[in-house]
């Protein structure tokens, strides 16, 4: 069985519009594993369903528009209602309140760089448009930063699928996506561990910083 492969067959019917739609959908459907879909899209690119650059462009435009839509929605709704909703939605995507607060704090302290980098962290990338709206990040800066981050994220996994099928023709998309998930979880745990160690080290050097 290859459910992701079946999904790609459906997307292929609509060509670049299907790529755009799946890029847009992953912003509003947390249960949709974007990395897995992107890997499967990369595999299909080798089968000439679409070219590699078309796959990256189509999914990036869809995802970027979805992220910008969330950002603008937050600016329109207001901070109080959005924050309450963010905490509620966080439970659905396994993001605790401390993790959400950390994301907001990090974006506030290093806004420009983390607007890009937040798109490279699973689950965090889903709430970063909401966080940027809450923090009042300028629309132009947000659009530019999030677009770069999405290009890197989408390009990485699409290229991974493309290269994987070249090395192993006939590979199962869903099986490859599962392996990618394991690597992503391991990488995220490692990043979280490094960040905590750095924070503890910083607090030891500057004891008063934690009280601010």
Automatic annotation (TrEMBL):
The chain crosses the membrane at residues 7-29, 49-72, 142-164, 176-195. Keywords: Cell membrane, Membrane, Plasmid, Transmembrane, Transmembrane helix. InterPro entries: DedA_domain, VTT_dom. Its main location: membrane. It is a multi-pass membrane protein. Pfam families: VTT_dom (PF09335). It comes from the Bacteria. This is VTT domain-containing protein. The lineage of its organism: Bacteria, Pseudomonadati, Pseudomonadota, Alphaproteobacteria, Hyphomicrobiales.
